[in-house]
Specification:
The protein has 352 residues and is of the alpha/beta class. The protein contains 13 helices and 9 strands. Helix content is 33%, strand content 14%. Helix 8 runs parallel beside helix 10. The protein binds pyridoxal-5'-phosphate and iron/sulfur cluster (SF4). The site of iron/sulfur cluster has 13 residues, from loops.
């Protein structure tokens, strides 16, 4: 989710499509790939499955035309049937408000295109770079106005990856590689294992960080094949999950986190502060508590990027600050996420 600007993803799409997994899962494909191939892609079906009257949800079709609905079954089962205000539903069902043009909400709020020395590589902050390892996502989050990229069946362009690897080899100030997307874990294990093996050959790299929503939305993604390449890496491993609500973290997600922990992974979480999803002290406290039960520490709480189509999720800064100050009265310090904003051109995430 940290690279959710459409322009940025577009630049990287050629490179990243070379790692993306195919949408039609071949026979014998891992369970998670079958789940990825069978996501709910129709707003009317989504409403029907949840016992919601689709007439009561105007705009679902319009929003879907702009950015398609995409909900994995494992996520669908955690949505409360019959409740149009469910905090998980709100993240995946388009509302008519998505088609409103709102001042200040633009297509590319992060202006990351200036920091892209190689395709699919963003070097904005000291010591760490971000690689777009897959343009695909398992779920389409309405607050992330990503353009949809068709999966491509091209064979990987190793030449393009080679350029990225050369850049990393030449800059010895880089100690950490962050795999992002889209969702980097939408790429196949074979391809990720290849990439990580190349990264391990670069002596000044110490850490591998993976920013992903897949362990939350399809916990079966954390399978033996993934744990094999990840667990055996010499790099220190950090997985930054993306969960916005305690209700997203069911027993299967807790088990997936436990498997990652057993493989030597440090687990963190980032959330986005979203109107109607987690914009209360109670929701934020419950999320932190639930994350810790799963062995995950809260890392960032992002204010919304002003991306077009998502203005109805916005929480004003004053209110965000007040929420977090009140939260601090209720939680131990280690369960407090850092409230941040991404400011184009800044040398780090900017605390509010
Ligand atoms: C958010 C981000 C990072 C990571 O920042 P941390 O503060 O280390 O979590 C790195 N590169 C880019 C381009 C980012 O947007
Ligand atoms: S998982 Fe959701 S928030 Fe993250 S990049 Fe994909 S659509 Fe955006």
């Amino acid at each position: 989710m940290i690279t959710r600007s459409p322009a940025n993803v577009q630049i990287a799409s050629d490179l990243a499509s070379s790692l993306a997994s195919s949408p039609s899962s071949p026979p014998g494909a891992p369970a998670w790939q079958r789940q990825l191939a069978n996501v709910v892609r129709d707003p009317v079906e989504l409403c029907r499955r949840l016992g919601l009257d689709d007439d009561a949800l105007p705009g679902a079709r319009d929003g879907h035309a702009l950015f398609e609905v995409r909900v994995p079954e494992a996520y669908l089962t955690r949505i409360q049937p019959g409740d149009p205000t469910d905090p998980l539903l709100r993240q995946v069902l388009p509302l008519v408000a998505e088609t409103d043009a709102v001042d200040g909400f633009v297509a590319d709020p992060l202006e990351e295109t200036d920091h892209t020395p190689r395709r699919g590589l963003i070097h904005k902050y000291a010591g760490r770079v971000l690689l777009i390892a897959s343009p695909a996502c398992a779920i389409n989050c309405r607050y992330c106005f990503r353009r949809h990229f068709p999966y491509q069946e091209n064979s990987p362009s190793r030449a393009q990856w080679q350029e990225t690897l050369d850049y990393l080899r030449e800059d010895t100030s880089i100690h950490e590689v962050i795999l992002s997307g889209g969702d980097p874990l939408a790429a196949s294990d074979r391809q990720l294992a290849w990439l990580v093996a190349r990264l391990e050959e670069i002596p000044h790299l110490k850490r591998l960080r993976i920013h992903t929503r897949l362990p939350v939305v399809i916990p079966a993604r954390i399978d033996e094949a993934l744990l094999e390449w990840l667990g055996s890496s010499r790099l220190q491993k950090v997985v930054v999950l993306h969960s916005n609500h305690a209700q997203e973290i069911d027993a299967e997600v807790v088990a997936a986190c436990a498997r990652l922990k057993d493989a030597g992974v440090t687990l963190l979480n980032q959330s986005v502060l979203l109107r109607g999803v987690n914009d209360s002290v109670a929701a934020l406290a419950a999320l932190s508590e639930r994350l810790f039960e799963a062995g995950v520490l809260p890392y960032y709480l992002h204010v919304l990027d002003p991306v077009s189509g998502a203005a109805h999720f916005d929480v004003p800064d004053e209110e965000a600050r007040h929420l977090v100050e009140t939260l601090r009265d209720q939680l131990p310090g280690f369960l407090m996420p850092r409230l941040v904003r991404e400011v184009p051109g800044a040398a780090s995430k900017t605390p509010l």
